[in-house]
Amino acid sequence: MDSLSMVYLVAYVPLIVPATWLLEKYGLRVTTIIGSVMNAAGGWIKCVAGILAESPAMAQTTRNAAAFPLLLFGQTIDAIAQIFLLGIPAHLASTWFGTSEVSTATAIGVLANQLGVGIGFCIPPIIVPAPPAPENGSVITANLNSTLAGELQSYAFIKKCMMILLYAGAACNTLPIILVLLLFRAQPITAPSVAQHLRNEAKAREKRSRESLQDQEKFVDILSRDIWLEHGQNSSEPDSSPSSPSREQTEQNDGPDVQTTVTTAIIFDPNEVDWSVDGSADHLRNRNLPEAAITMHTRSGGFKGSLMRVIKNPSFMLLLCSYGINTGTYYALGTLLNLILLQFFPADAPIGWVGFLLIISGIIGSIIGGIVLDKSKKYKLVIIVMYLMGLLWMGVFTGCLYRHSIVLIFVCSFFLGFFMTGFLPIGFEFAAELTYPESEGLTSGLLNASAQTFGIIFTILASQLTTNHGSLAGNLFLCAVLIAGFVLLVTVQKPNEQDVNLEQTAACTLHPDDHTISSREGSLTVSIPDRV
Q: 54: alpha, beta or left, given left = phi > 0 and alpha = psi -120 to 50?
């Protein structure tokens, strides 16, 4: 069964880059549709696997042998769907919400994911009863008798309950497809902020530039062919094809006149004469454009260029490691929670609700953290406080285990989940601030990949330590790596008050004629001298 949970962590890391590229190229709607369809498909595939499954006490058949591989395949499809959906909250928040709302919107998106995990903690045990313990640690394989008949009856009942759970899950996964297709738009009609408007303009301009370049290249190919037919008929080289000469060949073989003609064709593009872009960043600064506008209009290179800029950002890389350590510790703790608690509370049934409380308190922490960030805009201060408090409560949780008080464990779990889960959306927002104007989908995807990677490593190491040396060793290991992550976080440099507070309001419209950017709450005047 470990493979069914580990597949989520393993699938994320290699597929996050193509999933983020898809989000950047085709936008929120297409990415959300793909993720929703795959999520539903995985759910229904698991239903088919459940139908094929038969009791282990029965003779092995081809049908039964295919059940688990099909179940694993369906789980893998769901794991891949997760990759498309986990990066959505930060990207959706920046696309649809203004600056005073974006952190709260991100927090709500993250808490929705955590809410699903919390439901997964409490609903399945209610629907599906625990199977009876096998005799002598193995499955009974004797000839059909009263004991075997009882086991088969028990298996049939458990399978019936499991199928109810699988069908309900598949139906819940299918409903979002209908809602997304009918109600979800890729972006609002009017941008929610100036910065988002500038980003949309930059993307549109880049698209026009690519289309224009393609048209120019076609024109150059046609022009070069005509030039070759006119000037190159006497060429004695048999392999020189008139259909596809390179620009360098054309320039070298046809003399300066031809070079001048081709160059003129390349640089002339009346559609790209744009009031807001006219050369280098220095030239733009001389025209008194806002810094955000300069950044937006001079950064290019598509997804690959954006990815390289993010990776070369030292502050983001420090945050990437710190975020991965914190969230990876949270994943490891959630995975090993029952193993840890059973060493101290072997007879206490309520320990199953500790994980649920961890999730619910995290939802509260996410909302409050997002609201605080929206009000204060103190990104580094808020994230450091959240991380430090999570570290302290991890230490308190470790110490309270030896008090053998389930009440103290519930209290510690509440605050531990509050701060460690509340850290998640704040990390997304801080990453977006450090790398602005790069896409939030890219940065949040990389943060999630880091969390999954560290989660796998920490789960394996902490599991070995807990099994071989006890809970104290595993918990101390998690505390130690949290301290290392905190040191990395403190060294992150704040952005150059890139509080691009140009992002003042919602619904902006750019007016090149009178050099203003207007919105529902006012306007921002941009000084732009007339073209020479």
A: beta
**For 128-145, where are the alpha helices, taking DSSP H only?**
none
pTM over 0.85: no
Tokens representing 19? 């999933």
Q: Are strands 522-525 and 509-511 parallel, antiparallel or unpaired?
A: unpaired
Closest to 72 measured CA to CA, from 8, 120, 13:
8
Q: How does DSSP assign 388-455, residue by residue?
A: HHHHHHHHHHHHHGGGT-HHHHHHHHHHHHHHHHHHHHHHHHHHHHHHTTS-HHHHHHHHHHHHHHHH
User: Between β-strands 522-525 and 516-519, what pairing exists: parallel, antiparallel or unpaired?
Assistant: antiparallel
Closest C-alpha among 439, 338, 329 to residue 19: 439
Q: Which domains does the chain have, with CATH numbers?
A: 2-191+305-490 (1.20.1250.20)
Query: How far is it, in rounded angstroms, from Cα 197 to Cα 202?
Result: 9
CB atoms under 10 Å from CB of 87, counted, come to 28
488-522, pLDDT tens digit by residue? 999 998 765 444 444 333 334 444 454 444 443 34
Do residues 433 and 314 make contact, with C-beta atoms less than 8 angstroms apart? no
User: Quick one: which H or E segment has residue 11?
Assistant: helix 2-52
